[in-house]
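Complex 390.
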Amino acid sequence: MEITAQNLKINITNGIIRDIQAGNPASNLYLSPRFIDLHCHLREPGGEAKETLQTGIKSAFNGGYGTIFAMPNTNPACDNPDTLKYILSRAENPYAVTVKPVCAITTGLAGSALTDFETLAALGTGWFSNDGKPVEDMELLKNALKKAKKANVLIISHAENTAFPPQDPHSEYTAVEREIEAVRQTDGRLHFAHISTKKSIELIRKAKKKGLNITAETAPHYFTFSRDDITSADGRFKMNPPLREPDDVIAVKEGLKDGTIDIIATDHAPHTREEKLRPYGKSPFGITGFETAFSLGYTNLVLTGVLTIEELINKFVYAPAEIARLKIHGLKTGERAEFNIIDLSEKYTVHGENFKTKCKITPYEGLELTGKVIQTVIGDRVYDLRKREK
Ligand SMILES: [Zn+2]
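Predicted structure with zinc ion bound:
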């Protein structure tokens, strides 16, 4: 099999890459390693009506993802070896999607007892987060950072100051400010999830310049929409952090461009149709993300000149791999083939009903996007992601 794309021309025999040469700049196709998502919610155990590990995996596969980090706010929470092993056992799948469970920082995502970082890290990913809830106690956060440093594990922060309502930008940036200070005092390492405000981005930029060990992510909705774009009174545009002002959207794009924001994660957070169609005030936080993330990035960041295609792929693959200390494979001579074929000219309209995730309600419904992962190659198999299987 020979594939000629814009960036590479590759030759595969028996599932092994035999040869890689320069591509043809006139091609619409682009080859990338499979994407890595450092932030999603797969809901199992406990939330199977919203998503199961298998529907989440199918959805991720359909969006071009090969590795996904699942947050621990399940029921029970992933704060103990049994739940962690249960998730891993339920996550085996035919699509070679690797699910990496993130474990809770504190027992039950509450209280003050730190989980057993060393034991959980040995069984799993070495990522810890209370995502969905902040760790607001400064001493507890500092203890977590110190313990994480000793155990060589990573802390992901859902930075929120609950003294303010989520719509108030203070709710994010005052928490970011406090947590940067905790990192400074402990010489720890912290990854900020879903950064959405201009002020937070300025704080992170400054902290990085000072050499603090901080990384940050945003999600596609924060560079796609401002609150001016909310067109419905139900919960389809409801997520936490919420959509911000147009100025914040500009700042998110600048942060992505200058590297203050290292990666794009999905924060894929499905709910049932009934839950998302409730009035805004009564609907839970969270929208789906796997199946639209790349197209939103290409349409809103590359076609608008914010990032090059290489910089976008960096935010989806290489930078997350570096943060998570994963090795990229599948697109080098001599290796078993494992990569995405992206069609940069593919135009389509988003219809939630076509998603593989259980949650078909999306704020992107009807949006016209350009650029899509059309196929994933694994060994000698080519999976067509445009086909709508049941
Ligand atoms: Zn969160």
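The first helix runs from residue 53 to 62.
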